[in-house]
Design goal:
This protein has about 750 residues and is α/β, with parallel strands linked by helices. About 50% of the residues lie in helices and about 15% in strands. The chain contains 34 helices and 20 strands. Helix 32 (about 685-690) packs antiparallel against helix 33.
Length: about 750
């Protein structure tokens, strides 16, 4: 008999393998996986002996949808209400509920479910079946549970039109909305697949979506990843057979050919009705729906993914909305991305990714995560990995490389203060571009990585935005911001918005573009640079030119970047996944210091992107101006975006400016911009000075606490030399794992 999670034994086999065989296993596991699925599909129908079990609230359309699915599959259709409960009780469901009351009804319903068995059928559950744990465990053993997720407002409207008032749990003092909200926790506990169902979607359409979702669930081979530098036409048979899945690319980080991983078949698309169904949803609910579509359940089951998302965003963010949208002035809105524990947008990915990583990795090997940061990533990744369970900390450690003199004093203090027993910061006597390039070179140095695996049983992994998993949470908040504007009545769904983002490594901008591809009506993505404006010039001219360019230290250090790594993923996309062209461009950049896009590609790029830059002086002036007129304080990076948005927006639609960090992370620049007082060099003194001005918005809740811990905390500093960095890595592995 085929089991729903037949891939789990394969995961366990990999996890129990010797660590010295790690890389070979990571490449061979998908081959076995694919062969098993191909064998299964050759001899079975969509269902086999399994059941498709439709679950959802009353009024979700389970019965009608079930009949249509059954007709399409030519298999038995069973409605639990009509064919099981009423037959067993010899009375209608409503009569039984009235006769025995709420609690006894649930128990009797569960007992009936425990006695029921079927195979190869489509089963429509009652709305209250999922509230009986033993009954659901029994029926789920031989089925794939499909959750018909219909917005609560739609369900209430449907039930009202049908005059259905006999709902389990409905009583004086408890509203229908309360009952429906209460039941969601049970639906989320049991489902394998979610199907979004809007208000006006025909049952025939829902049935097709159910079948598509079941096919996707049973065939993870459709969701493989390729390198931006691989060529479809030039790929070998070995490359085609060694397919990589989400869990593989989370672990591997960087492709062996130096490219970045992207999904071979692209990102999932949401219909307008599906997006509209998320307008009333919370941020956590939106995140789960979007990430379920991007991560196959063979890699992370929906129930585990929900647990991870709740852990990441449930208590670690100070704002209940997680990523609120605030009106600034005119048609400008701020997407506040600084309510996480380390006060920057990096928290959205780095509160989530450590848990994804810990779930995906084999248990038989230790892992050292390498990170390069231009500022905010450092404290965020240190904080995120330090929140893992103690057992995971013993096998997962992290080292964070940052430019010793290229971050703000508070950012450096944060990185020192966030060091834990499994997470360390190392200052490098160079700039961010060196740190990032060094990590890429270490990953592609097979002699060094092989030595670490064989000698110490330790594999390397990446948590920078070069890791595919880092991008997915950023897609969520761009989509959520648009839905919030719709929910607030600022726009109707389908109306366009522009997005303006302070841009350095291009990951945040790429995530916004991905949200657009998935169906969010974003018109223009505006890239905002500081005086390190290589990216701006590239978008304007098509020439990416580093010749003679030196990094300029600015008041917005997180975008003090000359080499934008995630640009490679975007170019791969608009070049129709031409890996050979991408390889040629980035090899030329590495060897000659520049490349130039063909005219047709530049035209495509300029349809999506516009760009501008601003000086430090304009940045500080914007901070002062906005505070004077609104009482709101922008951080230096958001101020860069504000200046560029003012210059480039045409004011025909709203513009969402990504506020990527809390202003108190950059106290010296803020004090200078607001012309408040002489600046003390001590980061803690700077925060105390800011907090002493009652007229200012409060400083970030986590910064003072972290900086108090820092004191005179130590961190390692090393020269900008590859051999020195590799020596540091080996020493850290010896000290932590051996």
């Amino acid at each position: 008999m085929f089991h729903v999670f037949q891939y789990q034994p394969l995961r366990l086999i990999t996890q129990n393998s010797p660590s010295s065989m790690y890389l070979k296993l990571m490449l061979s596991r998908p081959v076995a996986f694919a062969q098993i699925w191909k064998s299964w599909f050759s001899s079975h129908s969509l269902l086999g002996k399994k059941n498709i079990i439709l679950m959802g609230p009353p009024g979700a359309g389970k019965t009608t949808t079930g009949r249509i699915v059954g007709q399409k599959l030519d298999c038995p259709v069973i409605d639990i209400d009509d064919d099981v409960l009423e037959t067993t009780w010899n009375m209608s469901v409503s009569e039984k509920l009235q006769d025995v009351g709420y609690e006894e009804f649930l128990e009797e319903e569960g007992k009936a479910l425990l006695k029921f068995s079927a195979s190869g059928s489509v089963i429509s559950l009652s709305g209250s079946n999922p509230m009986h744990a033993a009954g659901m465990q029994h029926i789920k053993k031989n089925g794939i549970v499909v959750y018909l997720d219909v917005p609560t407002t739609v369900i209430m409207s449907r039930l009202k039109s049908k005059q259905m008032d006999r709902i389990v749990g409905l009583s004086p003092g408890i509203s229908l909305k309360d009952v429906l909200q209460f039941r969601k926790q049970f639906y989320k506990r049991w489902f394998d697949i979610r199907v979004l169902c809007g208000g006006d979607v025909a049952a025939e359409v829902v049935a097709e979506k159910v079948l598509d979702a079941v096919k996707r669930y049973q065939d993870s081979e459709l969701e493989t990843f390729i390198s931006t530098r691989s060529s479809r036409s030039g790929r070998s048979t070995e490359e085609d057979s060694n397919k990589l899945y989400f869990s593989d690319v989370v672990i591997q980080g960087l492709a062996l050919d130096g490219g970045l991983f992207v999904p071979e078949r692209g990102l999932p698309k949401f219909t307008a009705e599906e997006w509209q169904g998320l307008i009333e949803a919370t941020y956590i609910e939106r995140a789960q729906v979007i990430l379920e579509r991007c991560i196959h359940p063979a890699d992370i089951p929906a129930s585990k993914l929900a647990e991870i998302i709740e852990t990441a965003y449930g208590e670690n963010f100070s704002c209940s909305k997680v990523a609120p949208v605030r009106h600034l002035a005119g048609n400008q809105f701020l997407l506040e991305l600084f309510h996480g524990p380390t006060a920057s947008f990096k928290d959205f990915a780095l509160q989530l990714v450590p848990h994804l990583f810990a779930y995906c990795i084999p248990r038989s090997c230790n892992y050292l995560i390498l990170v390069a940061t231009s500022g905010d990533t450092g404290s965020a990744v240190l904080d995120g990995f330090s929140r893992l369970h103690d057992t995971d900390k013993q096998r997962i450690a992290l080292v964070n490389f940052f430019p010793e003199d290229g971050v703000s004093p508070i950012q450096k203090s944060q990185m020192i203060g966030c060091q834990k027993e499994n997470a360390w910061s190392v200052g490098v006597k160079s700039d961010f571009d060196f740190c990032q390039t060094a990590i890429k070179q270490i990953f592609t140095n097979s002699d060094f990585t092989g030595f670490l695996t064989v000698e110490y049983g330790t594999a390397l992994a990446a948590a920078n935005s070069i890791n595919w998993a880092r991008l997915l949470p950023q897609i969520v908040y761009h989509a959520s911001a648009y839905l919030d504007l719709v929910h607030q009545g600022i726009i109707s769904f389908g109306s366009p918005v522009d997005i303006c983002i302070p841009t350095g490594n291009f990951g945040n901008m790429l995530a916004a573009f991905y949200a657009k591809m998935m169906g969010i009506p974003i018109r223009k993505c505006i890239c905002a640079s500081n005086e390190n404006n290589v990216l701006t010039e590239f978008i304007r001219t098509g020439v990416y030119d580093l010749r003679g360019r030196k990094l300029i230290s600015s008041f917005s250090p997180a975008v003090d970047i000359l080499k934008s790594s995630n640009l490679e993923r975007y170019l791969h996309l608009i070049a129709n996944e031409d890996g050979q062209l991408v390889t040629q461009l980035f090899n030329q950049l590495e060897n000659q210091g520049y490349f130039q896009l063909q005219k047709d590609l530049l035209g495509k790029l300029q349809q999506d992107l516009v760009a501008g830059w601003c000086s430090d002086e304009d940045c500080l002036a914007a901070i002062h101006s906005v505070y004077s007129t609104t009482g709101y304080i922008l951080d230096t990076h958001t101020a860069v975006a504000k200046v560029v948005a003012d210059r480039l927006q045409d004011r025909t639609c709203p513009i969402i400016i990504s506020s990527t960090a809390h202003y108190s992370k950059f106290a010296p620049a803020i004090l200078r911009a607001l012309r408040i007082a002489e600046i003390n060099q001590n980061p803690l003194s700077q925060l105390h000075l800011l907090s002493s001005y009652s007229a200012l918005p409060p400083i970030h809740w986590g910064l003072l606490e972290t900086l108090k811990k820092t004191g005179n905390g130590d961190h390692q500093v090393c020269a900008a030399d590859m051999s020195v960095l590799m020596s540091h890595i080996e020493t850290l592995i010896q000290n932590h794992f051996m």
